[in-house]
Structures are given as C-alpha cells and as structure tokens.
Amino acid sequence: MEEKVPLKFEEGRKIKGFKIFSDSEKNFVEIINFFRKLVLLNENINLGIKLKNIQELISFTEKIFSSQSMAEVFLYFCLHGASTGLILQLENNLSEATTYRILKRLYNMGLIYPALKISNIRNSKGGPRPIVWAIHGASNEEIANAVRLHMKKLNPKYLIAEKLAQTILDEYLNKRQKNEITYKEILIHIKELRLPYRTPDIAEITAEYLLENGMKVWR
Q1: 131 burial class (0-12, 13-18, 19+ CB within 10 angstroms)?
Q2: For the chain, where are the E strands, in sequence order?
Q3: Alpha carbon distances (Å) from 141 to 56, 81, 153
Q4: Of 91, 96, 87, 90, which is closest to residue 134 (Cα–Cα)?
Q5: Cβ(112)–Cβ(83) below 8 Å
Q6: Full-prediction pTM beyond 0.70?
Q7: SS3 call for 159
Q8: In this model, does residue 45 exceed pLDDT 60?
Q9: What are phi and psi of 39, to 5 degrees?
Q10: What are 170-185's pLDDT values in tens digits?
C-alpha cells in the first residue's frame, strides 16, 4: 500500500499578512488540487446540502485569506477552474474594483494565471479584450466553459432567465422541498413579469439553467 505523505509547507514570503509558499509550482498545484477536491466532493449530492458544505468551506477559507470576498472568488476558481472578471462580479455580487483587486492578488500569489483573451463581440465599443483567468491545473474544457459563460452574461435575456431560475431554486428547494418543476410553471412565472422579450426565449434559457443546477423540468 502506498504511504500517504502529508503536504509540506515551505517557508515563503508574505503578502498583506498572508503567508504563501515558495515558488515551487508543484507545491501550488498540490494545494490547489486539495481545495478543488474538497469543493468537488459535493458534485452528486443534494443541492441544499452542497450549498451548506460550500458555505462552511468559505468560512474556513476566509480565515486563510482574511477576506470573505477573496475566499468566495478562490473557491469559485476551485469549483469552475476558470472565470473572467465579469463572471466573478455577477456571480459573487462584487464591484468591478473589488473584483480586479482580488484577481491581482490571486495572480501575485501564483494561484491563477491569464489563460487567454476573448475577442470583442461584433458591434462592441472596443476597449480591452476580456481575460479568462484560470487556476493552476484547470482543463481546456473549463477555460472554454468560462468563455461561453462570459458571452452568456453579455446577453440581457440570459441575465433575466438566470435571476428567475435562482428565484425558483430558492422557492422550491428552501420552501417546498421540491426538486422538480413543469415547463408550464416556468411560463407562468415569466408571464407574470411582463418582460419585453418573447416568453419562450426566456423559458428555454431558464429551463436549461435549472437543469444544469440539478432540478428536473417536466415538459
């Protein structure tokens, strides 16, 4: 049987009170993989329990970084592998300044790196191309997923559907203890909002989001 050797922390420099490891990339990857395994252990369990476990992990990680926002962003990278600043802002309800301050700190600590730049969409006003940041060990698929999600976040229909889906998840999982919904119920929710978009467009995006988050949608 292979003997399990505990991770050894090497003496390193300090950044704003946080002691980080030496410049050994192997050490960083081991630590990152450890945190990613803690987060991904929850993949196949009930969403409510998963959220509770992740919240406990956030509390633990917050003590390491001395910042709840930074802990949440770090664990987002552990869970998804890659992200853009826009995604982090919207997913974690952060300001643009706070988001980029956290990204800069994680980059300076050697925990993330710029994986690629996204091409500006057609008819955009130009400006700097968005950067996809990735945690060390992230797969090409995770980086590609970040690009797709970034483009979705630029779509106002997606943002409305995402917000509606989150409301449904909160209502059904927390109040009704129910993990399923009919497509007709989704349509009713959308019609009540009187949105300036076609109801089926929002309904399809909402249904897709719910399915991706473990909820059964009956057609």
Answers
A1: middle
A2: 14-15, 18-19, 82-83, 112-117, 131-135, 180-182, 216-218
A3: 28, 9, 18
A4: 87
A5: no
A6: no
A7: helix
A8: no
A9: -70, -45
A10: 777 666 667 788 888 8
Question: How far apart are the C-alpha atoms of 84 and 147, rounded to whole Å?
Answer: 8
Pairwise CA distance, residues 138 & 82, whole Å: 7
Give yes or no for a contact between 10 and 27, defined as CB atoms under 8 angstroms apart: yes
- Reading phi first (left if > 0) and then psi (alpha if -120 to 50, else beta), residue 91 is in alpha
Token pair listed for 20:
């980080």
* Those residues with Cβ within 8 angstroms of residue 53's Cβ, 6 or more apart along the chain or in another chain: 41, 42
Pair 213, 169: CB distance under 8 Å: yes
Instruction: Count Cα neighbours of 178 within 13 Å in the Cβ-side half-sphere.
Output: 10
Long-range contacts of 17-20 (CB under 8 A, 24+ apart): 17/66, 18/64, 18/65, 18/66, 18/109, 20/109, 20/110
Identity of the residue numbered 74: F
Structure tokens belonging to residue 216 = 């059964």
- Contacts with 108 (C-beta within 8 Å, 6 or more apart), sequence order: 15
What is the structure's pLDDT at 11? 34
**Chain segment 108-145, per-residue pLDDT in tens:** 988 899 999 987 665 555 567 889 999 988 999 999 99
